[in-house]
Amino acid sequence: MKIKFLSLLLLLTSHFLVLNSVFPQTFQRTYGNTGSQTGTCIQPTLDGNYIISAMATGLSYSDDFMLMKINTAGGLLWKKTYGGTLSERPYYVSACTDGGYIMSGSTNSFGAGGADVYLVRTDSDGNLLWSKTVGGSSDDIGWFVVQMSDGGFITCGGTKSFGGPTWNGYLIKNDSDGNLLWTKVFNGTGGEFFNGMSKTSDGGVIVTGYTSTNSFGSSDIWLVKTDFNGDTLWTKQYGKVTEDAGWAVIETADGGYAITGDMHKDTITPGAHRTVLLKTNSAGNMQWANLYGSNPGSEVGYDLRQTPDNGYVVLGNTGYYGQGSKDILLFRTDSVGLLKWGRAYGSVMQDDAWQFRKTADEGNIIIAATENFSANTNWDIYLVQTDSLGQDSCFESSVTPEVFTPFLQERSGINIVSGGVLGNPSTVTNTPTMLVGNPCMFLSVTTSQTNVSCFGGNDAAATVNPAGGNPPYTYFWNPTAATTATATGLSAGTYTVTVTDATASSTLSTVAITQPPDLLSTMSVTNASSCSASDGSATANVSGGTLPYTYLWNPSGAATAIATGLSADTFYVTVTDANGCTLSDTAVVSCPNAISQPYSLNKFSVYPNPTTGVFTIQMNNAQLSIINYQLSIYNVFGEVVYSLNHSFTQSLINLSSQPSGIYFYKLSTPSPTGEKPVLSLSKEGEVITGKLIIQ
Question: Where in the chain do CATH 2.60.40.10 domains reside?
């Protein structure tokens, strides 16, 4: 039974692994920080991951070589920068047979003068093994670098130091330790440059670029075949009366070659160029060529690969298809260049493609740069992984470039010289901080809030929690105009917040702040049975606020809604709800011979009320001038803040030293033994109370 169970488990596990290995994975990632980072090349590594070369600006010095390793899901494993105090620009990376890497580009920090070819060799963890410069007194650039069968390296690019004042094609061979073995300069009467290169099955290399020497127009697509030692076997140029260039070349399954690049529509429309796909036989003789793009044209081809059915996938840029001023363009053709499908990737600003490679499931992984999804306002490295049909999870659209068949001519011939000085630069290695973004994780938000504690208050707060999109995020609250994730000091009402990510994607969310009902009280009083009895009571009937309530009566000390055992007097109650909101109220307990307050209030005035602290007590009957009365003023805690005997019809009271708030006054007439007061408006033992507000 155990054996059967184990067999079933192994079968299910293997089935899962097979499904997992072939199930297409699509995603997008960005990598960046301060400054600009541009991804220039991507290669598979020996351990099944990917290595990326990139230009990094603002992470250490001016521009640096940057090397990044990622896993198959786009997760960042490590990253390092290499360079000096000036500018270094990498254009290509190759994975080496020992698991390490080599990058090619240019440097202004080191070398013989101007910009020199710059090679940086690392181990599998990005640790520097050696770095070399090659060049002369003017500018020299290394564009592509490949490791050859002897462990050495061939680099292609351009030089102005040798062969004349204009750019010339440049081939360089270094051994496995970086020592210079030879250089080849391909120069003519015009300008030449090598943009792309591949190893060939005979041990040599095939190189493409442009030449304006003896060209059919401003420049022609240039194809050069060399042997293992860099000696030229043949050269070809293809063009018409326009400005044309090759950017990438591969050896095809039939032993021929396929080139992609750009070819201008005509000589009078600036920028009107289309992607070219050109197929030759093994001797460089053109078999067919097609142009792909819009009319008048804004497309360039930068990289290509052959598919198992002998078709082609071509990567480039477009200014016509897609959503922005420049988008990534990927299209698939059959074996003779007929279009099968096209895709554009990107958003409203610029996205710039450089290189791509085939994935294990026949999909495509593209390295590029983006302004749309960056961590700041500059460029970030942009990674797009598609399935075998070019489909991706977001920011992708199906497009159909027009296909044109140009009339091209071809010819052979170029001169070859040599030149170059080897340098040993003091390359500095750094480990920068990088932010990883996911453009396909669309921006979403959740909100949380703390409501108003007390009716009419403004102690509420609301917080928005963004997820997805591309940080950093910005916030704008309406109507408060707050610009942080949390808006504070809010009163009851409806608020909206707009959250915007680094790609200018935004979302709007609404928060409704509530408040409890107003804390109110009505007082029920049972008077004392006589002026000497203590059998009165007062009940505070409270509503609103937040339950439960607590009570404090003064001067009785009762702590419930009902205060009992009261004699004739004025009592104050402070009610506090669960949120700490307070309410103060007054209960007047009378005895049988007391005159009710409403009768006497029209004979007594306090003004102004509310007051700033200085106010007048006015007795509204001349007969009261011969009578003393007791005036007491209490705060909400029942504490006496003012007490004095008066015998005037009008008195000015100054309580400006007291804090703002609600106060209560009590005016009582004396009950002397013997003679009763002569009052036409009051009776013995009368108590008059009221509320005073100091602002």
Answer: 516-592
- Specify the CATH class of 595-695 in words: mainly beta
H or E element, residue 582: strand 582-589
Tell me the C-alpha distance between 533 and 272, whole Å.
Answer: 107
Architecture, CATH, for domain 516-592: Sandwich (2.60)
pLDDT tens digits, 157-207 = 999 988 878 999 999 999 999 999 999 998 888 899 999 999 999 999 999
- Considering the domain 444-513 in this protein, what is its CATH number? 2.60.40
The predicted pLDDT at position 411 comes to 78
Query: How far apart (Å, rounded) are the C-alpha atoms in residues 183 and 198?
Result: 17
The torsion angle over the Cα atoms of residues 482, 488, 491 and 496, rounded to 10 degrees, is: 40
Residue with tokens 């005035």: 605
**Secondary element (H or E) of residue 10:** helix 2-22
User: Cis (ω within 30 of 0) for the bond into 24?
Assistant: no
Separation of alpha carbons 44 and 67, rounded Å: 13
Q: Reply yes or no on whether the pLDDT at 678 is more than 90.
A: no
- The 3-state secondary structure of 390-401 reads CCCCCCEEEECC
pTM of the model: 0.67
Question: Would you report the helix, strand and coil content of the chain in percent, each value rounded to 5?
Answer: 5, 55, 45
Q: Are 192 and 204 in contact (CB under 8 A)?
A: no
Q: How far is CA 566 from CA 83, 551, 583, in A?
A: 90, 16, 21
Comparing CA positions, the residue from 684, 678, 503, 674 lying closest to residue 590 is 684
